[in-house]
User: What shape does this take?
Amino acid sequence: EEIRGLLGQMLFAREDGNKKTDVLSGGEAARLIFCKLMLQKPNVLVLDEPTNHLDLESINALNIALQRYQGTVLLVTHDHDLIDEVATRIWHFDADHELTDFKGLYEEYQAAAVV
Assistant: This one.
């Protein structure tokens, strides 16, 4: 039941549960990996550009899954929408390799950076 629910959250249709993994598209394979991660219930997720090569529906499903995730997520991304949706703390490295550590939402970080 938990597996079917998670597959549904990640936009897999009921009949997709019987597909062989070697016939999945790139986006489906990525969503399946996220399902596996969520079932393992790790304390920390380290994600490097997780939205690359995903279609819009998959990106939306990932955003929702990350918002519901109870653990810590270390996320490397250039996807401002993803940052806006899931980040509560920003580590920004500028061109001079200077680190800015900002606790808050991305929208707040952008507003503070302009000032």
